[in-house]
């Protein structure tokens, strides 16, 4: 079953409207997805978004036709050393937005099959598993932002210190 | 809100203590940075020899007369590297007319995948004045050691990512190491400290 993304999004919006009436249906909403543009021959880039699950769930996988390998990574800083490790299952507690941004969790698109250009959209399929082990696939079309983009919501490196 | 930090405001901020340093290049004295780490007494990164994407051999003295800000990374890096380079773009905006004095230098820790073409396109996408340097695997290991930069390959799927130190190293115009800027500092904080370096030499 392959419904166009617009329909899926529309259906998600409808579902969330009636969410209260359908407590048994686990679902996850995806806010502000975006992918960082790459330069020619660059082999990987990152995808960012905010996930909110209606019931306790886990993000267990991401797929995309633009990359050979897609993994969820966690970036951590230890004594100034930035390290990244794969997260096999990312907890999505009920009702709590989980941010995938340039400071913590993010989706790594590795082995890019072609350059990802600003203005393109990248199809992503998120696989979310609820507490009962039921899986749902969420299709998202993530717009590509410039290589130089920073997170759009008061990122620490871009803080407005106008009160200083 | 005035986003432009001028050298004058920094001079005023430095007060009497700062005036002494202004008299000339003070190579040994420790500096009082508000946010970054004073590295004036550290001897790091003096003898590296790497190539720019055009194949020119570059050493620290290639940047004499400017204020080099050296950062280590790799282009497959999704988070720290682009945010640090984007921060450098912001810093240049905040520095206003002094921006041309700052020379951003990106050293690749991944010479196997960061070909000169990829490196050049990558840094120039941020700012055409940014310079990318790379070397052989041995030269990369040597320059990292010289700066005390930690890095290691971490397997990821059938490829790898790299864990690495995220400090930016700032030299004064005579090639004396002065300042270490942590990844956690914002552009404004970095700019204030960079202007302090400019006042010293």
TrEMBL record, chain A:
InterPro entries, per the entry: LpqE-like (IPR007410), Lxx211020-like (IPR058248), PCuAC_sf (IPR036182)
Entry keyword set: Signal
Leader sequence residues: 1-26
Region annotated Disordered, chain positions: 145-164
Biased composition (Basic and acidic residues): 152-164
Xref: PANTHER family: BLR7088 PROTEIN, COPPER CHAPERONE PCU(A)C
Name listed for the protein in its UniProt record: Transporter
Species name: Pseudomonas putida
From TrEMBL, chain B:
Alphabetically ordered keywords of this record: Copper, Disulfide bond, Metal-binding
A molecular-function term among this protein's GO annotations: metal ion binding
InterPro entries on file: SCO1/SenC, Thioredoxin-like_sf
Binding site for Cu cation: 77, 81, 164
Disulfide bond sites: 77-81
SUPFAM superfamilies recorded: Thioredoxin-like (SSF52833)
Record family assignment: Belongs to the SCO1/2 family.
PANTHER family, alphabetized: ELECTRON TRANSPORT PROTIN SCO1/SENC FAMILY MEMBER (PTHR12151), LINALOOL DEHYDRATASE_ISOMERASE DOMAIN-CONTAINING PROTEIN (PTHR12151:SF25)
Name listed for the protein in its UniProt record: Protein SCO1/2
Organism: Pseudomonas putida
């Amino acid at each position: 079953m392959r419904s166009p993304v617009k329909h899926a999004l529309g259906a998600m919006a409808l579902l969330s409207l009636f969410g209260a009436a359908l407590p048994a249906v686990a679902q996850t909403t995806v806010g502000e997805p975006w992918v960082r543009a790459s330069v020619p021959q660059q082999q990987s880039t990152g995808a960012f978004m905010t996930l909110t699950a209606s019931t306790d769930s886990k993000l267990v996988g991401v797929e995309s036709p633009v990359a050979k390998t897609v993994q969820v990574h966690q970036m951590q800083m230890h004594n100034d050393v930035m390290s990244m490790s794969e997260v096999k299952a990312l907890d999505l507690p009920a009702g709590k937005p989980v941010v995938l941004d340039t400071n913590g969790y993010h989706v790594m698109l590795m082995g890019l099959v072609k350059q990802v250009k600003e203005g393109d959209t990248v199809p992503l399929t998120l696989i979310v598993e609820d507490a009962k082990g039921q899986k749902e696939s969420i299709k998202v079309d993530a717009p590509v932002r410039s290589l130089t983009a920073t997170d759009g919501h008061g990122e620490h490196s871009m803080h407005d210190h106008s009160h200083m | 809100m005035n986003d432009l930090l001028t050298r004058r405001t920094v001079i005023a901020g430095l007060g009497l203590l700062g005036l002494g340093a202004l008299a000339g290049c003070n190579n040994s004295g420790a500096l009082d940075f508000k946010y970054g780490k004073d590295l004036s007494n550290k001897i790091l990164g003096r003898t590296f020899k790497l190539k720019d994407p055009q194949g020119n051999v570059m050493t620290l003295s290639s940047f004499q007369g400017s204020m080099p800000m050296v950062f280590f990374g790799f282009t497959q890096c999704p988070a720290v590297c682009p945010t640090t380079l984007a921060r450098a773009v912001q810093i240049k905006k905040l520095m206003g007319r002094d921006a041309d004095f700052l020379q951003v230098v990106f050293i690749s820790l991944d010479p196997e995948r960061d070909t000169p073409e990829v490196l050049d396109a990558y840094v120039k996408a941020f700012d055409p004045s940014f310079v990318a340097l790379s070397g052989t695997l041995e030269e990369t290991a040597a320059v990292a050691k010289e700066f005390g930069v930690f890095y290691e390959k971490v397997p990821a799927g059938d490829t790898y990512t790299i864990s690495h130190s995220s400090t930016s190293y700032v030299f004064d115009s005579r090639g004396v190491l002065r300042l270490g800027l942590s990844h956690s500092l914002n552009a404004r904080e970095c700019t204030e400290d960079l202007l302090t370096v400019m006042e010293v030499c």
